[in-house]
Amino acid sequence: MRYVEGALKGHQLSGARLIRLLEDGDPEGIAGLKALYPHAGRAFILGITGPPGAGKSTLVDRIIGEFRGRGLKVGVVAIDPSSPFSGGAILGDRVRMQRHATDPGVFVRSMATRGHLGGLSRATGEAAFVLDAMGYDVIVIETVGVGQDEIEVVDLAHTTAVVCLPGMGDDIQAMKAGILEIGDLFIINKADRPGADEVAKQLAVMLDMRHIPHGEWMPPVLKTVAVKDQGITEVVDAALAHRDQLAASGKLAERVNLRERHFFRTLVREMAAEKVFGAVEGTAAFAALLEDLRDRKTDPYSAAEGLVGRLSFQA
Amino acid sequence: MKKVRVLIAKPGLDGHDRGAKVVAKFLQECGYEVVYTGLHQSPEQIVNAALQEAVDVVGISVLSGSHEYVFPEVMRLLKEKEMEDVLVFGGGTIPEDDIPALLATGVKALFRPGTPLADIQTFMKEHVG
Inter-chain contact A16–B52, Cβ cutoff 8 Å? Predict the structure, then answer.
């Protein structure tokens, strides 16, 4: 199979082309993924999320450097939005990470959301999987700039860092129920600006209100100035400490298993839908059903029930 | 669904990135996914970025007079990395007399100042769809 052998040897071109096949939904990519499956699952997956302009890419750049300094190989998947109008995208996260461009221990892949909501792209997980099988020790996932509810990264990452900015004071209040609930660590970047301490205080209060039981992970609130390389060691230490605690408590395996199950269900849903439409599309009965919908002789619920009711499935 | 991916790179020591940005933005509006590298890229950085990003096309903007080094070096590295299938085009202040030699290295097109954006779109449509 093309690219699989190369990817397993850590060959960057093979890995890159396999990721591209997966991103484009090519069946050959899926075949490659199946072959890689037994070889993945070793990497530590770190999610970085936060609002646009919080400095996520610069932070990722410094975090790469810190992990490299500790002798670890780093893969990055950085997501930027696709235009809802043209479908095109400007993927600019790399600009901040170019100093690692010739380091063979670093692989950076930019991805456009391609209409996918939730802060990631559809193929982000698959790209992370390939990088994992290629032998990268740490996979950093940088989400698009998010607001309150794009929390898909939690499903993928073992540890999620939420990046905040000084001066977000009242916004923090508003965000309580949103991405602030998902942070395993909180980073206040650009902390040399006024208002960093206030945000730190508000985050601490918010965390206190969660009543985290003694002995469970207490998300730390860390201050960084990424452009000046300040606070990065502490971020990486905290991320690794969280990973270690997850692993020790058995929660890492639980998380990974939950994600696999969730993914399996998603795949079944997609394949079942494809099978149903594959079977009925183009038939006269299906055309008649669509006409009934158009003429409002039936409603979408009844139409869907009728169609799915015809499926026979024995477990 | 397959989407065409393009790397827009700005090598050399000059900071004149207006052209690169205009082309990047235009290609995005045409529906392409454009990876932008930022300034001061070496040929090695450009080719490694193209490799990791698995792009179909590399566009290079040179306004520093270093085109006679940058383009052949990028073409050489692409070949070395077994990426000869990647389409390369360029733009910038490149004297007309220098163009034939650069095209001979495998660069598909060079767009000089004053090129209408539509010409770049036509070129892309023709070669990568």
Answer: yes
Average pLDDT over residues B121-127: 97
Residues of B in contact with A102 (CB under 8 A): 42, 44-45, 48
pLDDT tens for each residue of A233-290: 999 999 999 999 999 999 999 988 988 898 899 889 988 888 889 989 899 999 999 9
- For chain A, counts of helices (H) and of strands (E): 12, 8
Q: Do A88 and B32 touch (CB under 8 A)?
A: yes
Close Cβ partners of B44 (under 8 Å, ≥ 6 residues apart): A101, A102, B77
Q: Is residue A117 left, alpha or beta, with left meaning phi > 0 and alpha meaning psi from -120 to 50?
A: beta
- Cβ separation B34–A91 shorter than 8 A: yes
CB distance A160 to A243 below 8 Å: no
**Which chain B residues touch A88 with a CB distance below 8 Å?**
27-34
A2, A26, A34, A266, B14 from A271: Cα distances, Å = 25, 15, 16, 9, 52
Cα–Cα distance, A251 to A247 (Å, whole number): 6
Residue B55's closest CA among B8, B17, B18?
Answer: B8
A109 interaction partners in chain B (CB closer than 8 Å)? 52-54
pTM of the model: 0.91
Strands (DSSP E) contained in A74-173 are: 74-80, 89-91, 106-112, 138-142, 159-164
Residue A188 β-bridge partners: A164, A223
CA A47, B10, B36, A18 torsion-angle sign: negative
Nearest CB to A89 within list B33, B51, B83: B33
Six-digit token string for A72: 């670890």
Distance CA A9, CA A303 (A): 51
Q: What is the pLDDT of residues A59-80, one digit of tens each?
A: 999 999 999 999 999 999 999 9
Under a CB-based contact definition with an 8 Å cutoff, are residues B28 and A86 in contact? yes
Which of A43, A37, A40, A49 is closest to A78 using CA atoms? A49
From chain A, which residues contact B within 8 Å (Cβ)?
12-13, 16-17, 19-20, 24-26, 82-83, 86-92, 94-96, 98, 101-102, 107-110, 112, 114
- Decide if A94 and B38 are in contact by the 8 Å CB cutoff: yes
